[in-house]
Amino acid sequence: MKRQIFTALRLVCFLSGLLLSLCMQSANASQSNIFDKIDDRKMYGLTGKVVEARYSDGTLMKFDKTGKLIRLNGKKFAYQDSCKYMLEQGIVTAAKLECSETMRREISCDTGSNTEEYIFDAEGRLQEYLVHSYPFCKHQYFYQGTEKWPCKEISHCDTIPSGALTYYYIYLETDEAGNWLQRSVKVSGGKDISINRMYVETRRLKYDLAPVNLIASVKGEVKFGSYDPDRLNINKQDKQAAYDRGKENIELSVPKKVEVGEEFEIVFDMKRRPKDVGVNITEQFEPLNYGSQSYEFRTNTLLVAGDTVTQYQLLFKLKAKQKGNLELPSLKARFGGKLNISAPLNIVVVNAQSVLAKKDYNPVVRLVATLNKDTVRMGESAFLSLKLCTTYTKVTSVRLSQPKVSSCTVMEIPVDSIIWKPVSFEDVTYHVGEYKKFQLTPMKAGKVEIPHFWYDCTLSRWGANPKFANGIGNAHGLLGVIGAAVTVVSTSPVRLEKRNESVHTDPLYLEVLP
Signal peptide location in the record (predicted)? Predict the structure, then answer.
């Protein structure tokens, strides 16, 4: 009997473990599927491995290699745990992502309400884009037949006096990847005569140059200082033959248009590994380095139509010093004893556009106020949260100036301790945590203003002491609001860095309905 009970218990334990394992696998698969379907390039009508898009109005978008948007003008984005984090002017906010084949939704982690929503059709074309926060906006897109770009867009926005604007598009120029580079735009529907206009919109795209069907990529070595210059010289009689061979064996990839001072990359694709190589860079361009050298040589093995093909790439980073239609550097390469010269190719260089951009910096501390609701009815309450965002290790509260909120009763909800969450942006780690929480209960209908909160604090962190050149410093026990001990080990004694800061929130508004 005991043996039967023991066997039954082992079976129960085994089944429980198996069920737990399946649940974890399902959760991991769900998490993976969320990120597999997040391709922000799709939301902007981009196909292929676009890593940067620059528009004629100054808008700049950057994407990582997986297609996630990581920068939009002064805003930066990071992704972890099914959440999208946005850094704008020193303030970090988060949104939970929900995705399917035809929908992507962003839900504010502060309020729990929808902030943005994208709806696609069965062909993957954007049908609607909704902005649920104030001002509410709705963008609808219309297509002709099976065309992948919209011919018309209708935009409804609370801030548009006429209620809606209609945009008509005609596409003028495309690239090899199937993305539009130039289109004409006609706007109608606004009461202001300046809104009803026609103009040409352009954008420049940069792509990830790594082949999609790449099997392996290993760096080779080409020494530019070791070749015999005489072997790359050629008389006029054989020059045309060298150009003809270069057209067959060398291909140059380069953007069509850049700005003065803008960094860009040129790539020479070769079908064979070169022996002698020479590239003349004129004074119109400034060469930039890949690490310690001025070029990069790659050997890529690809699978093309079932066959293994080896590709050799020579890469250069350049900056144009002047505007104009400039001739790009030419490559001379010798394959099997025969000289090949790449075909001449020009690039259009224009003056840098003067666009007012938001200041982009890394703050040491920020205080952010958020409401879980923008609108409530009489008898309902809204919750106000104060969050800290800092790059320092310890934050010591000195004084919080709490403003008087008229027409509302304010009750503080105790927060036992701040739960900090680290968020990384471009090698900078920000700590974000809730500092205070209040319940606001309106006493009458109307618009309620929540003025600035002022916050005085002392910031602390350990750093290396420049006065000492030798020795090892070891500091323990730096316990602050982030609730963790910090250990610093360096080749010089450490010192405690402190600074005082005073920050404030932006005002908020709450609409109270009868």
Answer: 1-29
